[in-house]
Write a structure and sequence with these properties.
about 475 residues; 13-stranded parallel β-sheet; 42 strands
Length: about 475
C-alpha cells in the first residue's frame, strides 16, 4: 500500500473520530468529595464528566449537552429529598452509575433520574438505580431513551404506594429498551403518549409489568414478565403492536385489554405455574385497583380452591370492552381461563392460537355465535377430542369450548355440587348428539389438530 493511500486512511480515521467525539470535548474526572454540580455546570457541550469509583453526593442537575458517566463502582447518592439526577438538556446522557437516595414524594415525582420535557433525545443507560421512589421518569421528553438499566424499586410497604420502575408521560417517540425492573409498583407505566417502543425488558415482583393508559401507535415487543400480579395491562389505547412477549406465572392476568382497540397481538406466550398459596394473599390488583380501572370485581368461582396452591394466572387473557383486535399465533397455557371475553367486546379475530391445558379454555357468556376461524384455519385446543380422517390437519367437527352447563355454573357457582349427577351427564350427552341445543358462544369451525410452534422468547430469557 502506497504512502498516499496510508495518508488517506489516516485522514478518514481522523474524520470518523471527529464525528464520534468532537475535538473540543474533554473527559473530566471527578473524585469523591468534589463539587459535582459545579463541575457539571462548567463543562462544555459534549464533555464527559466521569465519576471515579466511590460514593459521590447528589443531587445534580444537567443543564447542557454533556455526559455524566460512572467508572465501575461509582455511586451517586441523593439526600433523600427530590430526584437524585434531573436532566433538562436535549441530548444529555446519564450512564454507568449506581444511583440511590431519592425522596418519597409521589406528587413531586421524586426519581433516581428525572428527565424533563426540555431534554428531548436524552439517554439514560447502563445504570443501576436502586431504592428510589421512581427509577426513571421520562416526563414529556420526546425521543428520549432508557436503555440497559437495572432498576430495583422499593421493597417495603404497600405495593400501590411505591413508584414505578420507569414512568413515561407524554413523551412522543420515547424508547424503553433492555432494562431489568424488580420491585415497586409497575415496571413501565405510560400515559398520554404515542409512538413509543418498549422492547427487550424484563420484569419481576411487581403489580403490572407494563401498564398502558391512553397511549397509541406504539410497540410492546420481546418483553418478559415473571411472577407479577399482571403481565401486560393495556388500557384505553389503540393501534398497538404486541409481539413476542412472555408472561410466566403472573398471578391474575397474562394480558389484560380494557378499551384497547385495533391492535395486533402476535406470537406471545402466557404460561401458568403452580405458586405457593401465600403469594395470592398479598398486594395485587384486586379491590381498589379494579374499581379505578373500571373493571368488574373478580369472580371467586374462577379461582381454584385449595389451601396449598393454584395455577397462575387466573386468566391468560382478559378482554373487557376491547374491539377489532387480531390475536394470531399466540400460546396460552396452564391458566384457570384461557380467554375471558366480556363487556361487549366485538370483532376480535382469533386465528392460529394454541390453548393448552387451561382449566376452562374460554369464558364467553352470550346468545351470539362467534366463529374463531378465518380462511379455513382455526386454533389448537388441547382438550379437543376430534378426528382428522382426511388428514388435512383440521378437525372433522367444530370445537365448542362452552356448553349449557358452563353457563349455568358461571351464573350459579353453587351448581358445582351437581357436576357428577346423572342429570348433568344427560344434558351434555344430548348437546353432543343434537348441536342445535347448544347455546350461543364461541365455536371454532376449523380447529387445528396439532399446535403451532410455540413462540421462542428473545435473547435474555427470564429476569
Amino acid at each position: 500500500m502506497g504512502r498516499r493511500a496510508l495518508v488517506r486512511m489516516g485522514l478518514a480515521a481522523a474524520i470518523a473520530a471527529s464525528f464520534a467525539l468532537p475535538a473540543w470535548a474533554e473527559r473530566i474526572a471527578v473524585s469523591t468529595g468534589d463539587a459535582i454540580q459545579e463541575i457539571v455546570d462548567l463543562a462544555s457541550e459534549s464533555d464527559v464528566v466521569v465519576l471515579e469509583r466511590g460514593e459521590h453526593r447528589g443531587p445534580i442537575r444537567i443543564t447542557s449537552r454533556v455526559t455524566v458517566e460512572g467508572e465501575p463502582g461509582a455511586i451517586l447518592v441523593g439526600p433523600g429529598k427530590g430526584s437524585v439526577v434531573t436532566v433538562s438538556a436535549p441530548g444529555a446522557v446519564v450512564r454507568g452509575l449506581i444511583i440511590r437516595g431519592s425522596g418519597r414524594d409521589s406528587e413531586k415525582m421524586d426519581a433516581g433520574v428525572f428527565v424533563e420535557k426540555t431534554a428531548a433525545g436524552a439517554i439514560v443507560e447502563g445504570n443501576r438505580i436502586e431504592g428510589n421512589l421512581y427509577g426513571i421518569y421520562l416526563h414529556g421528553a420526546e425521543n428520549s431513551v432508557a436503555r440497559g438499566n437495572e432498576i430495583v424499586g422499593i421493597r417495603e410497604g404497600r405495593v400501590n404506594e411505591a413508584g414505578n420502575g420507569i414512568s413515561v408521560w407524554n413523551a412522543t417517540g420515547a424508547k424503553v429498551l433492555d432494562n431489568s425492573v424488580r420491585f415497586g409498583r409497575d415496571g413501565i407505566f405510560v400515559i398520554t403518549s404515542k409512538r413509543n417502543v418498549f422492547s427487550g425488558n424484563r420484569f419481576r415482583d411487581l403489580r403490572f409489568a407494563i401498564h398502558y393508559m391512553y397511549t397509541n401507535d406504539s410497540e410492546i415487543t420481546d418483553n418478559v414478565s415473571v411472577d407479577n400480579a399482571v403481565g401486560f395491562a393495556l388500557m384505553f389505547s389503540s393501534r398497538l403492536k404486541i409481539t413476542g412477549n412472555v408472561s410466566d406465572g403472573d398471578r391474575d392476568h397474562g394480558f389484560l385489554f380494557n378499551y384497547a382497540n385495533g391492535s395486533q397481538i402476535t406470537g406471545n406466550t402466557v404460561l401458568g405455574r403452580l405458586q405457593p398459596a401465600e403469594r395470592w394473599n398479598t398486594g395485587g390488583t384486586r379491590g381498589k385497583d379494579d374499581k379505578e380501572h373500571g373493571l368488574p370485581a373478580p369472580d371467586s368461582s374462577e379461582v381454584a380452591q385449595g389451601p396449598d396452591a393454584r395455577p397462575g394466572p387466573t386468566k391468560c387473557v382478559f378482554i373487557y370492552n376491547a374491539n377489532q383486535n387480531r390475536f394470531r399465533d399466540n400460546w396460552f397455557e396452564g391458566c384457570e381461563i384461557g380467554i375471558h371475553f366480556t363487556a361487549g367486546s366485538e370483532r376480535n379475530e382469533m386465528v392460529g392460537n394454541a390453548f393448552i391445558r387451561n382449566r376452562n379454555q374460554v369464558k364467553y357468556v352470550s346468545t351470539r355465535y362467534l366463529d374463531w376461524s378465518k380462511d379455513g384455519r382455526g386454533n389448537y385446543w388441547s382438550d379437543n377430542p376430534a378426528f382428522d380422517l382426511n388428514g388435512d390437519g383440521l378437525g372433522d367437527g367444530a370445537y365448542r369450548p362452552n356448553d349449557l352447563v358452563d353457563r349455568v355454573l358461571w351464573t350459579a357457582p353453587q351448581a358445582k355440587v351437581l357436576m357428577n349427577s346423572p342429570a348433568v351427564q344427560v344434558i351434555r350427552w344430548a348437546q353432543a348428539q343434537f348441536p342445535a341445543l347448544l347455546p350461543g358462544g364461541v365455536v371454532d369451525s376449523r380447529p387445528l389438530m396439532a399446535p403451532p410452534r410455540r413462540p421462542q422468547p428473545a435473547a435474555g430469557g427470564r429476569p
